[in-house]
């Protein structure tokens, strides 16, 4: 299982996802460009010392990421999906893709994904924070696939 972040814009969110990856044993792919400098202190401050416990791969763009992910199912987490992530059948080796905070992913990236899922939420609100959404989805995916840490 991997978490991929498409052109993330907020350093604190990336730091929180890195910490999540460290805690759950999930690698994190960062698809550039990012909305901040990689050496931004906010990434390290949020990830704390957990940043040394997670496998992080940076990709120069979506095409480079796709080349490295060949053979894996790419599952897009999006508010535009009709299928709940709780009804989806997750497998070991899936890659959970989250779009940038301000606008998700462009149509060509969405079209390149094997599946699209959403987190059910109340109609009165728009979406979860990126790191919170990653935690909910990764937890469910790992639970279903039997890959949760002991």
Give your account of this protein's structure.
This protein is of the alpha/beta class and 150 residues long. The protein is 33% helix and 17% strand. Helix 1 packs parallel to helix 2. The two termini are 16 Å apart. The model has no long low-confidence stretch (mean pLDDT 94).
N-end to C-end Cα span: 16 Å
Number of structural domains: 1
Give the biggest beta sheet.
6 strands, parallel
Compute the number of strand runs.
Answer: 6
Strand arrangement, major sheet: 3-2-1-5-4-6
Number of helices: 5
Strand content: 15-25%
Low-pLDDT parts are none
Name the shape in a single word.
globular
User: What is the helix content?
Assistant: 25-40%
Rg over CA atoms, rounded to whole Å, is 14 Å
CATH architecture: 3-Layer(aba) Sandwich
Oligomer: single chain
Q: Quick check: average pLDDT? A: 94
Instruction: Write the element-wise H/E pattern from the N-terminal end onward.
Output: EHEHEHEEHEH
CATH superfamily: SPOUT methyltransferase, trefoil knot domain
Question: What is the fold-level CATH name, i.e. the topology?
Answer: Alpha/beta knot
Secondary-structure class: alpha/beta
What is the highest CATH level, the class?
Alpha Beta
């Amino acid at each position: 299982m991997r978490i991929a972040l498409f052109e993330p814009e907020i350093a604190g969110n990336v730091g929180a996802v890195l910490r999540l990856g460290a805690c759950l044993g999930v690698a994190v792919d960062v698809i550039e460009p990012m909305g901040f400098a990689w050496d931004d202190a906010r990434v390290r401050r949020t990830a704390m010392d957990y940043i040394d416990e997670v496998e992080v791969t940076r990709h120069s763009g979506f095409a480079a990421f796709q080349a490295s992910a060949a053979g894996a199912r790419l599952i897009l987490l999006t508010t535009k999906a009709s299928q709940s992530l709780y009804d989806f059948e997750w497998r070991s080796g899936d890659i959970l893709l989250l779009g940038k905070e301000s606008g998700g992913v462009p149509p060509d990236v969405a079209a390149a994904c094997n599946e699209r899922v959403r987190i059910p939420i109340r109609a009165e609100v728009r979406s979860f924070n990126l790191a919170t959404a990653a935690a909910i989805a990764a937890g469910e995916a790992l639970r279903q696939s039997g890959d949760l840490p002991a």
